[in-house]
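Hi everyone, sorry if this is the wrong subforum. Our group has a chain we'd like a structural model of before ordering constructs, and none of us has done structure prediction before. Sequence below.
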Amino acid sequence: MPTLTHTQYTQLTPTTWCATAQVNDSLSPSFEEFWGQSSWLLASHISPLSFYRHDNLNWQNYLSPVALSVRDMNHNQRQLQRKGVRLLLQHLLDQLEINDALDESAFPYRLIDNNHYVCFSHTGSKNKNDVHNHADQATHQPLNNKVAVIISRDRPVGIDIENNDVAWQVAQRFYSANEIVAMQALPMIQRNIIAKLLWQIKESFIKIHQYTLAQGLGEDYAYLIAGLLSALREQSPLIVIADSQSHYHIAVLPTQQTIVIF
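Answer:
Right subforum, don't worry. Here is the predicted structure as tokens:
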């Protein structure tokens, strides 16, 4: 049975909420310490189950438990994450005092009675690993079991949580020509940040519009790069920019390594 730690909730609009968490197997220790990671870069001050709005975010320190073997991690990760995102959804519904269940019969997912839209994400998602493996390993860090969920009363929404950077050779292979040109003009640190954010934005819109993976990765979001760079200078725990072309908003939660399209 999975357990959730350092769960964090964010209200984006009066009718849109998201949550992120670390999911662990209650019978097995987590993966991070196997790789020598001792803590998450999260600030402390409040209970991990406190509910708060985006303009009043707080963070907590977390020391990972003992290590899970790589073999066991590979074997159990998918099932653990699948259970973890659904457990996180239930926690979010409990926080909102919504008594409902998930209808998984069709995309986008919705709640059965309230018809709220629901979208999940977890680190190491299948499609992205498949693409990365075919591109000679796009990422260079071990996977962690982070999960995320968003619900909205208004319209389909997307979310993507990701630990790892996107390798530049993968961006060059899958991103649009306009995106590549714009990123090539950036210092390497900014280029790497934007490459990851664009990947997460693409993943989130794939979930909203039900694009194929190739179609979604090939969409041109170069017009967002300047706004993302400007917003990131604020160094805020939550950054929101308007996407004038899609008529959605894009939320960046840097500490939670999460992108939300709402």
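For your construct planning: Residues 12 and 222 are 24 Å apart (CA to CA). Residues 29-52, 54-66, 125-130, 132-142 have pLDDT under 50 and may be disordered.
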